[in-house]
Amino acid sequence: MTDQWSQLNEKLASYPYVDGYTISDRDFEVFKSVPIPAQPSDQNGCSFNSIALAEELGLDHQKLIGAVKSLIAQDGLVTVSETSEKRTELTNEGQEMATNGSHEYNVFVAIGDEGLPQGELMKLPIGKVGMAKAIAAKWIATEKNGAEVRLVREQLEQISLGQEVDAKDKTELKKRKLINEVTVRGLIVEKGPNFTTEIVKPELDLTAEMIQSGSWKEKTFKKYNFEALGVQPSSGHLHPLMKVRAEFRQIFFQMGFTEMPTNRYVESSFWNFDALFQPQQHPARDAHDTFFISDPAISTKFPTDYLERVKTVHSKGGFGSIGYNYDWKLEEAQKMYCALIRRPSLHVNSIL
């Protein structure tokens, strides 16, 4: 197990972090130099708790989370689940007291064996608060030894090391805003289905050189993130021709014209050809590239009386025409057709 972790640590050292974070070489040297113990991973060495592991190795937990996120980017390498722990941490003021002693302790030291006038004591930055706490603790009224007056500092030091203190003392420290209850969120990391100690950085782009040499066959490419936002345009404006088009359009509206619904890009052959008197199975229908639709393949929505008139004109003639004298087939007229290549207003005219 230790060898596997060592190999994984070495790969992590050369692999980029996500979220813009890059760990320093020194941090990774420390990370690799410390052997991973049996705890906090499980008995099979297949999972670990990021919070416990950071404590075992003496690492910044956020740096370890960054390494795990880099592994998550490798599809199937590891699987993670969220976990959390409640802890007691020192506030900024509590950290200062743990280092320099509490206000009442500093007041006690300042007074000394010979005493100190109250006016002089109030000139100290911690004089007012420290004096009130020292009087409440009866440190100034009676002689106390150094071990007793250092009690708050020792309690804060214990908490900073993760040790427990008396519940009554903890409540008092909370009232003084020297400690806070915080929730530390971490990850339970387990080996994924594609776990390996050989981490290959995926290619971002397929280049012409890869295609020419054939090396793309041996490359691993990063999956596209279709949810990612595109590049934000610096500015936008209407094209000059679109402005002219809008002006002419408005002029025609003022003259009383109306627009036809020319956005019927998929239509049946009946409206595209038959209603325009183009015979079935005739080269005239191939004047433009014809693309038939597979789904839906046919249309059945036709005005019955108009359909019969079109069929009669094609087969027998009418309205002064002798027609084409052939067997007109409804199946041919029902075929769906993409009208993008031809002038879209032609079949719209026949519908209107």
TrEMBL record:
GO biological process, alphabetically ordered: phenylalanyl-tRNA aminoacylation
A GO CC annotation given for this chain: phenylalanine-tRNA ligase complex
Keywords: Aminoacyl-tRNA synthetase, ATP-binding, Ligase, Nucleotide-binding, Protein biosynthesis
Any one Gene Ontology molecular-function term assigned to this protein's record: ATP binding
Domain of life, per lineage: Eukaryota
Residues of the PheRS DNA binding domain: 47-87, 102-153
Pfam families assigned: PheRS_DBD1, PheRS_DBD3, tRNA-synt_2d
Record bears the keyword Transmembrane: no
Annotated Phenylalanyl-tRNA synthetase domain residues: 223-298
Protein name: Uncharacterized protein
Classification lineage: Eukaryota, Metazoa, Ecdysozoa, Nematoda, Chromadorea
